[in-house]
Amino acid sequence: IINSPTSTINFRELIDKKKILLVRLPKGRLGSDGVSFIGSIIFNRIIMAAYTRENIDVELRTPYNLYVDEFQNFTSEDVVTALSESRKYGLRLILANQTLRQIKDKIVDIILGNIGSQIIFRPGIMDIEKLNAYYSHYISPQELLNLPNFYAVARLLNNDAPLKPFIFETVVE
Q: Which among 69, 80, 138, 144 is most buried, taking Cβ atoms within 10 Å?
């Protein structure tokens, strides 16, 4: 991806054939800048490959899930655009990170405004202000802050309409 004039990974084929690509980017070996650089390249290549699916009828676009852990390392204006555009092309983004404070405020606002479903484990006190608007009508800030271990709050989108947020227990085995 970095050294070669042509990539050996066909990202469009990866999406169309629902292949799995696992990428490990250890900060200890690559450093923060290296992780951000390489991760952004891969992330953007997958998004661009999804955009080329415009030549497939919407009904025939097989959904593809892109899971990104510690996504704050790759946040940029491109991610924000991807959130609003990727659904059209059958690309589902599952983004995970520790705290909203790791992301620029402008990007957090756009992310929270664009995501379909949220699952939040006990948030930090600094994140409550941002999350309160989405949950305060159903779950108090104190309930969010006092979630026990292995419990989470879900705000899910069903048939393009948000469901009432609810608290649930995850299974630990």
A: 144
